[in-house]
Every structure is written in C-alpha cells, then in structure tokens.
Amino acid sequence: MVDPKSLLGSPTFPGNEIDPATAHTHHPRLQHHFFSMEQQLEASTLGMWVFLVTEVMFFGGLFMAYLVYRNAFFHDFEEGSRALDVTMGALNTLVLICSSLTMAWAVRSAQIGKKTALLVNLALTMVFGTVFLVVKYFEYAQKFEHHHVPGPSFVGTAGEQIFFSLYFCLTGLHAIHMIVGLGLMAFIFINSAKGKYTPSWYTPVEISGLYWHFVDIVWIFLFPLLYLIGGRYTI
Predict the structure, then answer these.
(1) Under 8 Å between Cβ of 177 and 62
(2) Run of H or E residues at 83
(3) 18: region left, alpha or beta (phi > 0 left; psi from -120 to 50 alpha)
(4) What is the pLDDT along the chain (235 residues), one digit of tens a residue?
(5) Phi-psi region of 58 (alpha: psi -120 to 50; beta: other; left: phi over 0)
(6) Is residue 130 a contact partner of residue 102, using CB atoms and an 8 Å limit?
(7) How far apart are CA 210 and CA 112, in angstroms?
(8) What residues contact 127, with CB distance under 8 A and at least 6 apart?
(9) Which domains does the chain have, with CATH numbers?
(10) Spatial distance between the Cα atoms of 151 and 44, rounded to a whole number of angstroms
C-alpha cells in the first residue's frame, strides 16, 4: 500500500508536474521544495490570500462593533457623521482608486518585463498612498481642533463619542496598513531598480499588489459607513 504522504514530493502528484522542456534547468529564484516557478507563484499567492482572510476577520470584528453601536445610537452616529469632512473622504477614495489602478499596471509591467513602466507605476502608487496619508493628517487635525477626539475634552453626546472612537480606531488601523503598504512599495521599487524582477519571477510584486488592493478595498467600505450616513443628501 502506497503512503499518500510519499506522493506529495512526487512529480506525478497533481500540481507537481515537470515540463520536459525545463526539466534540466533551475531558476535561481526557485526554492528547493517547489518543482516549478508556476507552482511557487501559486503557493505564494495562496499564502497571501490566507493572510488576507485573517485581516478580513480582524476588520470584520470592528465592522460588527460599528453595526451594533450604530443600531443603539442611530441618531448620534448620524450627527457624528455630519461632523466629518465628506470632501476629504471622497478625495481619499479617489486617490486610493487611482493607486489600485497604478498598482495593477505595475504588476502587469513586471509580468511583461517593462522595467521603466514598473518603476513609474510603483512611484505613482507611492505618491497616491502618501497623498492619502497627508489628507488624513489634515482631517485628524480638524477633529482635534473641534474637540471630536474621545477623551476628557470631547464635545458631544456619549453616542457621538462612541462614533468617533470607532472612527479613529478604524481609520487609524487602516492608516497603519497604508504605511506598511508604502514600506512594501519602497522595497519593491528598490529591487525593481536593481532589475531583480523579470517575467519569470515577479512574485513579490504580485503579492504586494494583493496587499495593496486589500487596503484600498477596506477604505471603500469605510467611506460610506463613516462619511455618508448623516443624511446629507436626503430629499
């Protein structure tokens, strides 16, 4: 009887097939426990998706807290939302959508070996991410000026204070993720300038792109939940 575990390292196991044309070649970036660059890319992508699932669960708990407290303090949450600068929020939404586009172009440039296009799109992605953080800085400054920061000097009802507590928690954690993303983009940019990524190996670019898109998607949910619930546009 064949031990199923013994098949995991076999070229005949599904996903481990070796292309005869490349059977005698070994890419310098291919790790010893993979049979091909394609298999290595698939494993890396799967690993990132697993990590992003944990991030979804992390933010999901905060979203659930938001929904519970919004139901309990519905009108206070509306008043809190009206105190937010919807123009700044909309600007940051547009900025992140543009950054997702340039990130997608960066990944595509890496796939087809366009080094200049890769560098340009990575730079644009970092510029958009930096603009987002700058806008968020000025938005936070407004909250301090208007005493909307939870604490002894807060001006408003208990429900509004809960709203702004969740606002700073959600947007602050998102900003931290954005800073981490910028660090990844800087790392990828430096390695791209050194010519480390080719059509046969661009895994770090694609994996970092998945992370960046996730951060952008989180903001797409935060914007309407926080900024557009105040009944500004009711008829």
Answers:
(1) no
(2) none
(3) beta
(4) 445 444 444 444 454 454 444 444 556 655 555 556 566 667 778 888 999 999 999 999 999 999 999 999 999 999 999 999 999 999 999 999 999 999 999 999 999 999 999 999 999 999 999 999 999 999 999 999 999 999 898 998 999 999 999 999 999 999 999 999 999 999 999 999 999 998 888 889 999 999 999 999 999 999 999 999 866 554 4
(5) alpha
(6) no
(7) 18
(8) none
(9) 62-227 (1.20.120.80)
(10) 43
The count of other CB atoms within 10 Å of the CB of residue 206 is 18
How many of the other CB atoms lie within 10 Å of CB of 19?
10
Contacts of 111 (CB under 8 A, 6+ apart): 199, 202
* Tokens read off for 215: 């951060």
Sequence length of the chain is 235
Nearest to 92 by CA among 55, 137, 122, 149: 137
Residue 69 amino acid letter = Y
* pTM of the predicted model as reported, rounded to 2 decimal places: 0.81
| Tokens representing residue 171 in the block | 């947007």
* 136-166: burial string, b at 16+ Cβ within 10 Å, e else: beebbeebeeeebbbeeebebeebbbbbbbb
